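Notes to self after the Tuesday call (sharing in case useful).
The group wants a holo model before anyone commits to mutagenesis around the pocket. I volunteered. Ligand is zinc ion. Logging inputs and output together so the record is complete.
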Amino acid sequence: MKKATYQQTKQHNRDLVLRTIFAHESISRAEVARLTGLTRTTISEVVNGLLAEGLVEEIGRGESIGGKSPILLSIVSDSRYLIGLNLAQDKFVGAIVNLRGEIKEMVEVSVHDDDGEKALEAVYQIIGKLLRKKLRPIVGLGVGTPGLVNAREGIVVNAVNLDWRDLPLRELLQRKFKIPVWVLNDSQATAIGEFVYGGKTNHEDNLVVVNVTHGIGAGILINGRLFHGDGGGAGEIGHVVVQENGELCRCGKRGCLETISSTRAVMQKLNLNSLEEAQAAFESGNVRARQVVSNAAHYLGVSLASLIGTLNIHKIVISGDMACFGDPWLNIVKSSMQNAALTRLAENTQLELGKLHYRACILGASAFLLLDGYSLLFRQEI
Ligand SMILES: [Zn+2]
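Result:
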């Protein structure tokens, strides 16, 4: 094994300390030492560097466990900013987010047709607007887009409703705006948002987040890292056929989960133009609406059972607009899931609704690099 250079070790220790401080609201140097296994001297040195850079601050004293009460450290929320974009169905939303996931500025652009050029223009427009705000330094930009994405190379392989095919989005945006960019599938971004900012997860946990909106996709985090799969398509459950010879899907196949369980499918089946109308019909007890929504919930539950059988991950969060149908919908999803999965596995699986709604995708897109090392936070020149 090659011996790590002094510089590499220093960088590694810094990442480790920063990650540990980031994962806690506040923490003492002694606790950082205990959690990282680094010596007190090393911690002292690294923390001094972080204090000097303004990334970390001392925020008073904690409770004493014998002896002097320790000084607590915390990340300075507004020391760096990130931009997150959610390219949702009828509108693109972008926000400037601080290191604690607080949205500081937000802009929206409506998108009406599926012209690929216009969609790209709308992305440029939204980023331009955000960069004109005064918040600095902005250290990176994350985009959550529907469709199949090669996140490693930042290429949108295929996004049907945006009319994008093999679009090198990262390269285009980096060239235009001169900041680091990463591109993720919207469900994967939503999963990261729920993981980092939805609460109740530790940074090594596993989590599945299923995003049910106009389309359906899942984001899978294993040991706190997004699992992309070999072709970037891990979690693409929306285009798995669940009903043979079912309705024609926009992907060209018949009977995909999306043709039954997405908001798009529900509106189409009810001949309605908005989800609000569908929700109203459902809540007023309209028989057809009840039937369509129950069916949507049922097939979603069956698909979740496959995820349980494949991954055996104990926590599944459902996010997205379909959640507007509330508990009656969620309960059917749950019972279908339990009926279709191996009982012992299903018993131990927690299914709950996400807490961040549309913000999950924006926050997750912005936070992606916070999970994979903290390299972005070290950039000072922007
Ligand atoms: Zn399909």
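Two things stood out.
The chain has a mean pLDDT of 90.
Residues 85 and 94 are 4 Å apart (CA to CA).
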